[in-house]
Amino acid sequence: MTGARRVPGAGLLAGAPAVSFSFDGRRHTGVAGESLATALLANGERTIARSFKYHRPRGVMGVGNEDPAGLVTLARPSGDEPNSRATMVELYDGLAARGQNAWPSVRWDMTAVTDLLSPLFPAGFYYKTFMGPAAAWPLYEKVIRRIAGLGAVPATPDTELCTSTHAHGDLLIAGGGAAGLQAALVAARAGARVLLADENPWFGLGLLGEDARIDGEPAQTWAKAALEELSGLENVTLLPRTTVAGRYEQGFVILCEKLRDGPALAGDPSPRWRLWKLRVGSTIIATGAIERPMVFANNDRPGVMTVGAVGAYLNRYGLLVGEQVVIAASDDDAHRVASQLARAGAEVTVADTRDSGSGVAAAAGVEVLWRSRVADTAGRGGVAGVQIEGPSGRRWISATIAASRGGWSPALHLYAQTGGKAVWDDARAMFVPGAPEIGAVTVGPCNGTMDLAAALAEATAASSAVCGELGYSVTSAVPTVDGADTASGIPGFATPANRKRSFVDVQNDVTIADLDLAVREGYRSIEHVKRYTTLGMGTDQGKLGNINGIRAIAEARGEPMSSVGTTRFRPPYVPLPIGAVAAHMSPEHHHPMRRTAIHDLHAQAGCVWLKAGAWLRPQFYRRGTETDLEAVNREVLAVRNNVGLVDVSTLGKIELAGPDVVTFLNRIYTNGWSTLKPGMGRYGLMLREDGVVFDDGVTMRLGESHYVMSTTSGGAGAVREWMTRLLETRWRDLNVAVVPVTEQWFAAALAGPMARDVLARVAEGFDVSNEAFPFMGARVGKIAGIPARVFRISFSGEMSYEINVPSDRAVELWKALLEAGKPEAMAPYGVESMGVLRLEKGHFVVGREADGRTTPYDLGLGRMVSSKKWFIGKEALDFPEMKNPQRRHVVGIVPVDRKQRLPGSAHLIHADQIDAVGASQGWIVSSAWSPTFDHDIALALLDGGQARHGERMLAYAPIGGGKADVEIVSPHFYDPDGGRQIG
Amino acid sequence: MLLISCPYCGERPEEEFAFGGDASVVPPNGAGEGAPVGTETFADYLYLRDNPKGRHREHWIHRYGCQRWIEVERDTVTHEIHAVRVAGEGK
Ligand SMILES: [Zn+2]
């Protein structure tokens, strides 16, 4: 037994109901609302985790988020939550937790054999050992994943509800201890809009066990009154269980609020986590200081704790963590904790490095050893004995708890996150905030001010100043403090003899010997040493151990702490649940899904949906028991032989108007626009400045200075932004209005040899004959009584009319067109069939064949590049490399054996070079079964492909292993002369 | 996250905007008529950007707002925003 026992009537939860919970399947009883760590300690569970590298037993060391070791997996109905900090989880009835990074359990961990091998696992072990050969990596990875790591990633999505909220305020106060409460009081009384956040369920925890009096009252009474006053003010938002996780520029702060740990009750809509996105005028950082342990040999055993944690378990949770406690410290506060433990019935020994100090522990019957410190611990599965080194030598004493305090480290993370520099203060032996940061001020222990009276004065001054700047008048005075501990001696760092077993980072198993080695091997920068040794990595980010690590590096380098410095502090302050970050944006709400104006008609027609970028579009319309391929084949052949109808309203539509539109088009498209007449359109190719194809589409000239441009579905936004950018920054002299109208117009295309017959039945106000309305013509009139713009353009290669009507007439139009097509039994076709039609025709698609690297020449569209005028991308197209005949060109691909299917994701190689490095000469980009040709066809990008038509190659998919002999052909499979769309 | 004061709309969060690169770069090929420019010069313009520490003039578009281009003068170290103006007027 460890001797941990509950002290009746003690702690904040005295009288709270008992609940049952389990750890690694063992059933226990705890107190509702206490931390899981408390409940585990109370039930004699000492080893609750295993360390990252050596699998050494790990127990609870701290009491809050600084605890580096007590990580467990919570098994919840909503899914596993790995790496949960036992110190931060509030106990609820039915809680089930288990240890992690161990097999079969943390108590009996077979992989702990790595601990026996630890001399073989020095700093940088993984880097040095697993260097090569590359082919062995899959094996290395398996081994490393098995023995190193924390909790397992859950196999199923977390079903817990999470949410996020935006808020504004004058002042955020991070940390609800004495300084935070005082800062809040000052600002709240002045009328400022205040948010006060603390990561714990209670405010004022730092004053628990404090003997001092504030404004003549016991410190706890003062804190209660402060909280009561704040609760009653409308301008104050109190946020318990809320961690201020990240502070960014211009008053932006991220807070993570835990609304509950227990499962959602039936009918309870409350989320588990809420992420606050806050914008405030200023932030007062009152996050306190993190206790810094002393470093001694075997200081990682369960039972090694911080003094403050031991005190907090007693005063907060009413738990005496052990009957025999050794306290190693160098300040008077530790003697007070020792006296409290003694009064609760523990046998306590204090080893104080100073010559003399407080007598309160001695008065309570504690053995106090001056000029002494802890040198070593012993015990299997946890501390059983502690070796104390003093003026009269070393001696072992029996103890289950070795609590130490080597000093304090201001929790200045929020200050440093925006770039604030932590500077070493020799006098106080701590890193303290340096020059002030914009929009934030540190007060109290977080500012290195450990004295209670001084901290309250600092909080008052800071809050008053902030309120003054915001225009509030302050009336609050600094509270008086009496009976507080006086400032203590300088703790200093001891240099342990057994460096191999003296841990500075117990989560990542970093010892002083590892840091010595890293420095010997030439690592000097703290950032490099961190990454080489893993010091301060992991879930705790070295809250407890970093400063001791920096001290060890300073010693090894023979330089002062100030020249080592700290690693960069980055948000978040504590790990955030991914669910809280995603909140309600998961998964289908992450990006709005766009639907066309006749979405419901598609659904009624039994379409199969396809997510195409931001749009939900019909892939094809299945009839009866058709397979996917049968449905697509039917739709394709209908267009080739008869007529089909397709919803193309996702294409971008941008209206251009003004006297300079032609000049503008000439500059942004590769081809010329000066000769385009009203009522006609032209296909255009738009390049980036580096000569790469950016977008394409047809622009119609509707009137003298009125044009409507169509873009790809995916490029609509980018093209508009590009054009407005040019007009607003570079060519402010051009008079062109750009109006995006994609959503205002619905568009459907009739395609197929019978398209004109169908159109003729519904067209009003214009002649549909081939002579009157030729290919690339634009007409404005009515279709089935609806005002319409009709464009004779083709993507399928067949005769085709794109009909645009106002979006609110879309349903009407679609129904009228289907009705008009009844003699031909016209049916709608989907995006998949449209893709097959364009592939047969050999049209490239931006984002596929035009993959962000292809030029017009690569696409075989050199004829689109005007030599008579300048356009964007021209200079780059003239770069010698852009005309290199070995560039990757678009080619057509057919299987030599026409009955063979082409493999997916295939590279084009020479048949004798399978698996040779660098054998790939290109790859298949788009492929499909062509019902028109009765075999597979594909478009590919191939090195120097334009000169290789007729060549045979092997299409080979390295993943999956599919292969086929193929022939390189022209990309224009169908109607290469284009007669069908013109006729 | 930045708070950008759009000259058209007022203070809005960074999420509404999209970054558009260095606003101080001047295309070497003139005002749009394609003045002749050497390959080296043009390649530098395309691919090489300064990475200044401190004040930086940059283009942003208020994508989920007025959809206008603006010029933001931002400190690349502190993220302080010194000025926001209508694009193209700062030259
Ligand atoms: Zn705006």
Structural overview:
- Chain A has 25 helices and 54 strands.
- Chain A is an alpha+beta fold.
- Chain A folds into 7 domains: 5-130, 2Fe-2S iron-sulphur cluster binding domain, sarcosine oxidase, alpha subunit, N-terminal domain (Ubiquitin-like (UB roll)); 162-289 and 410-482, FAD/NAD(P)-binding domain; 302-405, 3-Layer(bba) Sandwich (FAD/NAD(P)-binding domain), CATH 3.50.50; 493-557, BFD-like [2Fe-2S]-binding domain (Arc Repressor Mutant, subunit A), CATH 1.10.10.1100; 594-650 and 744-771 and 781-828, Probable tRNA modification gtpase trme, domain 1 (Gyrase A, domain 2), CATH 3.30.1360.120; 652-740, Aminomethyltransferase beta-barrel domains (Alpha-Beta Plaits, 2-Layer Sandwich); 874-982, Elongation Factor Tu (Ef-tu), domain 3.
- In chain A, the strands form 14 sheets. In chain A, strands 9, 10, 13, 14, 15, 16 and 30 form a 7-stranded mixed sheet that branches. In chain A, strands 44-45-46-47-43-37-48 form a 7-stranded mixed sheet, with helices on both faces. A 6-stranded antiparallel sheet of chain A has the order 50-53-54-49-52-51, with helices on one face.
- In chain A, a hairpin with a 2-residue loop joins β35 (607-612) and β36 (615-621).
- In chain A, α5 packs parallel to α11, α7 (307-317) packs across α8 (332-343) and α18 crosses α23.
- With 91 residues, chain B is mostly beta strands.
- Helix content of chain B is 10%, strand content 36%.
- Chain B has a 4-stranded antiparallel sheet, with no helix packed on it. Chain B has a two-stranded antiparallel ribbon with strand order 1-2.
- In chain B, β5 and β6 form a beta hairpin.
- Chain B starts with a strand and ends in a 5-residue tail after the last strand.
- Chains A and B meet through α20 and α24 of A and α1 of B.
- Zinc ion (ZN) is lined by residues 6, 8-9, 62, 65-66, 68 of chain B.
